[in-house]
Model the fold of this input.
Amino acid sequence: MDTSNPTSPASARDDAGTHADDAAARPVRDRRQRTHDNKLTKRLMRETGRAIADFNMIEEGDKVMVCLSGGKDSYSLLDILLTHQSRAPFKFDIVAVNLDQKQPGFPDHVLPEYLESLGVPFHIETQDTYSVVTRVIPEGKTMCSLCSRMRRAILYRVAAELGATKIALGHHRDDILATFFLNLFYGGRMKAMPPKLMSDDGRNIVIRPLAYVPEKDLIAYAKLKEFPIIPCNLCGSQENLKRQEMNRMIAEWDRKMPGRSWNVFGALNRVVPSHLMDNTLFDFAGLKATGVADEDGDMAFDAEDFDAPIGGFEYEDGGDGSDADREAQPAGAKRPVVFMTDLRAERNG
Done:
């Protein structure tokens, strides 16, 4: 019997069997997806909560100005902070702020409609910085630097006008890592993007509650929540090519050796000034032998052991997530991950 004919009885039976199998498998897939979504949401709440607590980002009576661009990161930040606000043991206020820079094609109705649907206080600041930047910057040159400086000055002013005590930005773990490597490779300095710092005008405290969150989790969360994403390339300017290079490097590490990027990230809160070369952080010139043993002293004749991971990426079965490690695992093996913030217990233990 010819089963290749789509109209034959045998073909019809095969199609019916396939549809039946799909229908039977759908509840299982849906249940797994719900479990995945719940774990993602809990993970984001946990990691942002830990970052907020670790750096005392939000306090009783704060008015937090959440800068909303229309991208996945700022949408996620606002959504997560609203949830924290509803659960926090103290009171703090949130106001969402968007700067409409009059970029061509910017859908200025999207954010107001979204924020009104949430019932969250918001402010739309309209400033035609796009015309200024395009007039000053020659065609073909990147506009990002001047644009960001103007945007920063405007948002600082708006924060003061609204009485905000904190300015919350949507930078995540990968942004912090990329900034660190940009400074290291191209700036010749060890500097990253801090989770909390005073603004350069001295009037505002800037916080980054997503500091412990990898970008891939925010991509998944934005998809889950179906945020009305606004394209980030409306101005026609390309993202900084060097930052793109850093992002590709981090993504490659996460794909092949996920422990590496978490290891570098963990190192940002395990700095040992006495083992670097900055005289402003450690008094090398005035150093004298005390005759007292110091476990942090120089061990130049000992080989250092770098085999033991420091957390944030180590699987409970001891694997490191490399290609060889993954190939050695049984199919379907469950591999819980120890997160970066577990370093706190390790550091304080």
Summary: The chain is about 45% helix and 10% strand. The two ends are 73 Å apart (CA to CA). Residues 241 and 247 are 10 Å apart (CA to CA). The chain has two domains: 36-240, 257-284+307-349.
